[in-house]
Amino acid sequence: MLVSLGALFYGDNARAYRPFVGTDAAVADLGELETEFGPAEPMRAGSQRLLTSADTVFNLGVAEGWEAVLQGQAVTLLSPGPLQTSLLGNEFSLKKIIRHGILQEKDGPSIAVELAHCCRASTASPAPARPWAGSCRIAGDG
Predict the structure, then answer these.
(1) Angle at 22 between CA 19 and CA 25, to 5 degrees
(2) Residue 19 gets which letter from DSSP?
(3) Domain segments of the chain: what residues?
(4) Rounded to the nearest 5 degrees, what angle is found at the Cα of 133, between the Cα atoms of 66 and 54?
């Protein structure tokens, strides 16, 4: 118990590597394309057999200090019936690092802004797409 209490009071500041929504703490350089792929995963829901992909992310440097991000997930119905693929959870966003800081190995807080839009699924859906949303992320010693 004394060791636990000692560790609690002795601990140093924690640092988060990926505090921004779905992206890292930097933006792609102008004209640079970064891609992130994950493995496909089989699923079963009742009598349906599905194949789902992990989120796929494309980051493109579109201007100095700006990044466009497109991410989403494909789900394919394998049975019963004909093969059918839907795109789910698709999102387009623009991100800018306002201030380079601790997450870029510099002094002070890192500050980024992100403007995102969740797109409709590719299959017919009665639910409307979410409107544009913005966020500001600040990370640093505190």
Answers:
(1) 45
(2) -
(3) 37-139
(4) 75
